[in-house]
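anyone seen this seq b4? input:
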Amino acid sequence: DLELVTTDLIQLFKSMKTGASRIHTVMSALKNFTHLDESGFKEVDIQKNIEAVLALLRYRLSARSDDLQIQVQTDYRNLPLIYGYAEQINQVLFNLILNAIEAIECKYNHWNRHSFQPQIKIWTEIRDNQSIAIGIQDNGIGISLESQARLFEPFFTTKPAGQGLGLGLVTSQRIIEEMHNGRLSYVSSTEKGTQWIVELPLFKQSSPSGRADNTINF
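predicted toks r here
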């Protein structure tokens, strides 16, 4: 039947258009995430970086087959550009936001789903005109005191075997503190969740070791 074929083709073209749009969005996000056209220690737009990471993780935040939908609240202050390695900063943001998502997923699977409202709050601010701070807060499962004692140990992970290398946080700490003269800190409660704070200096400066390269050594 020609009418049915025409209807199917219209639906197919709509799906292709939607798919192409999603591919374009992902490719744009990947370009911002990896800064394919940039390299080295230079000006970084933190808000743009956060949004690029969120775009890449959108599939983990949106409504899924298990009905989990994570609400993301952002509160961006008017930040100046900072100096840093954009790709490495994105890696830290990706690690921290992904950890927040996984903490929420874990709580969702072991909690009363009807009373749990999963959310991630991301905020930025200037501190004493010396640094900027990025806060990433979730209301997920939280980190136990036992795990906190080993949190920055290489290869330590609370994830099931085969699902994590245990290098995300130790790498993030070294990127922020060794490569950018910044600070990575957190507060966590098994009842309320976890908040990570990334602090980065406002002004251009060299790393403590004076190295110009961006190699992370273990």
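The two ends are 66 Å apart (CA to CA). The CA atoms of residues 42 and 216 lie 18 Å apart. kinda curious what u guys think
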